[in-house]
Amino acid sequence: METGTAILLSMLIPFLAVISNIILRDKPNLRDGTTLAAAVATFLVVLKILANEGNGTSETLVLFQVMPGLDLAFNVEPLGLMFAILASGLWILTHLYGIGYMRENNEEHHARFFACFAFAIASVMGIAFSANMFTLFLFYEALTISTYPLVAHKGTPEAIKGARTYMGILMGTSIGLQLVAIVWTFSLTGTLDFTKGGILEGHIAGPMVAVLLGLYAFGIGKAALMPFHRWLPAAMVAPTPVSALLHAVAVVKAGVFTMLKVGIYIFGIDFLSETGASEWLMWLAAFSIVAASVVALTKDNLKARLAYSTISQLSYITLGMALASSMGALGGGMHIATHALGKITLFMCAGSIYVATHKTEVSQMSGLGRKMPITFIAFLIGALSIIGLPPFAGSWSKWLLIVGAADTTQWVMIGVLMVSSLLNIAYLLPVVAKGFFLGDRSDTSQMQEAGPLVWAPPAVTAAGCVILFFYAGALLEFLAPIVAN
Amino acid sequence: MTSEVTQTAVTLADHLPVLQILVPFVAGPLTVLIGSRALAWPIAFAASAIATVIAFLLLMQVIDGSVISYHLGGWAPPLGIEYRVDAANAFVLLLVSGISTVVLAYARASVAAEIPKKQHTLFYTAYLLCLTGMLGVAVTGDAFNVFVFLEISSLATYVLIAQGSYRDKRALTAAFDYLIMGTIGATFFVIGIGLLYMATGTLNMADIAERIADQGSNRTVRTAFAFIIVGVGLKVAIYPLHLWLPNAYTFAPSAVTSFLAATATKVAIYVLLRFIFTVFQPGFAFEINTLVVIIIPFAILAMFAASFIAIFQTDLKRMLAYSSIAQIGYILLGIGLLTETGVTAAVAHLFNHGITKATLFMGVGAYVYRVNGSFYDRLEGMGRQMPWTSAAVVIGGLSLIGIPGTAGFVSKWMLVQAALELGWWPIALLIVASSLLAVVYVWRVIEVLYLKPPAADAVHVTDVPLSMLVPLWVMAFASIYFGFDTNLTLGASSVAANGLLGGSVLAAQ
After folding, report:
1. Residue A106 — φ and ψ, nearest 5°?
2. Are A187 and B417 contacting, i.e. CB atoms less than 8 angstroms apart?
3. Does the CB of A157 have a partner CB in chain B at under 8 Å?
4. B283, pLDDT greater than 80
5. B484 close contact with A: CB closer than 8 A
6. Which of the four, A171, A306, A339, B119, has the lowest number of CB atoms within 10 Å?
7. In A212-235, which positions are buried (b, 16+ CB within 10 angstroms) versus exposed (e)?
């Protein structure tokens, strides 16, 4: 299979799954089976792209020209490929988990739910393989629109309100700021192609670089940089599989992925470093990291706590870009993968607890660990990876970020990363500790793990956190070309 | 000036400019004379379809930047009437006739539901006359002829709007309001033309332009300019002159609203463009000042005030009417920027917004057809009951916001780019900020359609018949198609902008 065909298939297959979900809406098993087949096929297609291209950059596939200088075009480069592998692989797991969760929880409108889900995956594939900022923006908006029904899924006033915040902030920032930034870039350079070393150098200078970067940084609302982070906790009203895939992997990672793309391929790391335009962003990201962690401490609702934890972790990646050093950018890129594995584990565990016990608050979870050991051990592994302890994957990306900070002699940033790790310990580990050590030991109620479709996926991703620790070198090597001169 | 070919007409193809008008103009009275209710719609549809084909052929002839000059009855201008087709008006001709044809396909079922049977023959006659008038305004090169055709279309429009009175009596006052305002506008316009005639002694637009350029600006010319801008401005519904529009759109029959919203104001904008750029040269300071000081601020005011009002509407049709006023603001802004990119954006938005609004108003008509109203509380849960209609409305809504991948995005992009090229930062930010207001009013509708359960008496509502769905989806599809393939829209718009600016002093600067 040609790479070009494979790229198109990776978007087409999820899109066909959207249609199959609509057609087969009244035949649950056939419908969910078809979607599962689509998820596996998408993953295989993406792996085929990996086999074809390795960590090289493929030729650009131009579908057609929309406006002079603006093409709908795709190509493969390591960062995008990693993102695509991650999203399509986790789609399989989340789909299985979603089937279990939706059925055991008696949620309604399954067909609509899985259709929108597949549409979101198709959009993510588009984002991952975009060859220019224009194409990326197109799929970025498609992702926002396709996930809106997922957030509003329950249809309760609360869900509608949350969905409104979600939509308002994401649309507001993308149209109000990002679009301006993109058109500005285009009118400066006449191109929007992602180019190694950036396209802006020589076209803009002085404080305006920082202004343009600001338009991008805030315009990419999906990266949840403070103060545009409110949508993330608001979106937690969605069913947990949505939170797991979309708000730990697809949507938020699409945000920070875009951020890295802009930093590396539009501005260029060297250009940022020469002009110092990203220094303010570095401080803001640092603030986001610490502030969101502190807020997470105060949240008793487990999903809300995880949401704020996500905000904090996303800013690691923004920080990696803003450090304007190769190591920082690589650490940011790697953190996309390691945080995705860790956070999806945590979210799926939260959902698993909810399905089994209908408990959502951390304070109610005393003793649950003894009833649901697999879930809580998976949670522990995910948490340790997020905190950044070996032998879990998260330790490597954090390590690289610290190296990046040291390279650029930003000692304060090292401190920030350390403090954040401590805060992570403080808000994540108590959940596990309560689960295993507190609570009434003589409690003999029949509480137990939910079905295997619910507890197995987090166990797999938790195992992934461990495995990735040992293959981090390979991942680093894979990503290296994105910052190579 | 562009080289002109004096034609000795031999083949039918040479007569295309006049056939453009003649076909609907003859077909209109013909429906009355035949008097058969069953034949009225087929005749109207055939006439409109032929007009669309002619418009397409004309556009293909002039898209390379050439100009067709047709002398009516063989009388040479400036004495005779000249029909003059270039990219700008060929594009408008195609928009008007194309939308008219699609709306007519849709109108058959919609009109049958909203207007009593005995009126149908006259309805289609009025519709064809309205079409004739709009096409005539666009095709002619004679200033007085513009006035005549403008009146033909306006008078027919008043009748068409009043047809809404079978559903809601307020259509009569809406039509009357529009009659008064429209007539004032027409009067101002004809006074302006009279003054121009006084100053130059000719009515041919190209001729007027040359003579104005020769004698420079004097007080008569300035007064004429003012009268014409205000007169046309009433028809365009430039912000403070828009008061007739919301009621007219709200109470007119759905098919009429779809047609008018997509074309009537657009034709008026074309007249504005023609007078600003071809007749008056935007070289003289008076005009630039007028545009920058008056048009741009009012355009921006429209973008915000009308959008803001749209947010608080509870009737979908009225909401869309206010949104139209706001969108006209974008087009005027593009014109006011006075650059090639700006005018290209304006012409492209004229087209893109036309198809977007046609989609939306046809969607409204579909709801009216099924649940007998377009108030939000009647539309609750319709996303589930009428999935195809609602999906088309969502596509239209996204195009209205300017989501990438829709027609609305393309022209908005050009507009932002035009503002940035001039370095007019705040304007670029204002454009996107007002798009955000569009997000709010469109999303309100989406919430109503999809997140509310249907009312008790609406649970058995099903989607509209195919004869309405197909035209609706043709327009919805066009709203997406022109978001990706911009060869036709941006291509024709930039040739048109070149042609419009080409004759002016600006091009030399």
Report:
1. 55, 40
2. yes
3. no
4. no
5. yes
6. B119
7. bbbbbbbbbbbbbbbebbbbbbbb
Q: Would you mind telling me the total number of residues written for chain A in this entry?
A: 485
> Measured between alpha carbons, how far is A241 from A100 in angstroms, rounded to an integer?
10
Location of structure tokens 């697999």? A374
Q: Is B313 in a helix, a strand, or coil?
A: coil
Q: Residue A78: inside a domain, yes or no? A: no
Q: How many CA atoms lie within 13 A of B474 on its CB side?
A: 16
Indicate whether B497 pLDDT > 70.
Answer: yes
- Taking the Cβ of residue A137 and every Cβ of chain B, the question of whether any pair is shorter than 8 Å is answered with yes
What pLDDT is attached to residue B379? 84
d(CA B359, CA B103): 10
Q: Does A111 touch chain B (CB under 8 A)?
A: no
Domain boundaries, chain B: 285-497
For the residues A345-359, what does the mean pLDDT come to? 84
pLDDT of residue A57 exceeding 80, the answer is no
Give the amino acid at A251. Answer: V
SS3 state of residue A338: helix
pLDDT digits (tens, 9 = 90+) for B353-371: 999 999 999 999 998 888 8
Which residues, other chains included, contact B68 with Cβ-Cβ below 8 Å and sequence gap of 6+?
B5, B16, B17, B58, B61, B62, B83, B84, B85, B86
Q: Which of B304, B429, B432 to mutate to test the interface with A (most CBs of A within 10 A)?
A: B432
Radius of gyration of chain A (CA): 21
Let me know if residue A378 belongs to a domain.
yes
Domain tally, chain A: 1
Which of chain A's residues have a Cβ under 8 Å away from the Cβ of B433? 176
Per-residue tokens: A31: 């419908």
Residues A234 and A303 sit within 8 Å (Cβ to Cβ): no
Q: What is the pLDDT of residues A396-433, one digit of tens each?
A: 888 888 888 888 888 888 888 889 889 988 888 888 88
Give Rg (Cα) of chain B: 22
A289 within a domain of the structure (yes/no):
yes
- Would you give the DSSP letter of residue A483? T
Tell me the average pLDDT of chain A: 85
Question: Lowest-pLDDT range, A39-48, A270-279, B210-219?
Answer: B210-219
**pLDDT tens-digit map of A181-220:** 999 999 888 888 888 888 888 888 778 888 888 899 899 9
Element of type H or E holding B68: strand B68-71
Q: Is the ipTM, as predicted for this complex, more than 0.90?
A: no
- Supply the pLDDT for residue B190: 94
Suggest the residue from B384, B436, B451 to mutate for an interface test with chain A (most A CBs closer than 10 A): B451
Confirm whether A297 is domain-assigned: yes
A149 touches chain B (CB under 8 A): yes
Range of the domain at A372: 278-485
| Cβ partners under 8 Å of residue A147, min gap 6 | A116, A120, A166, A242, A246, A250, A251
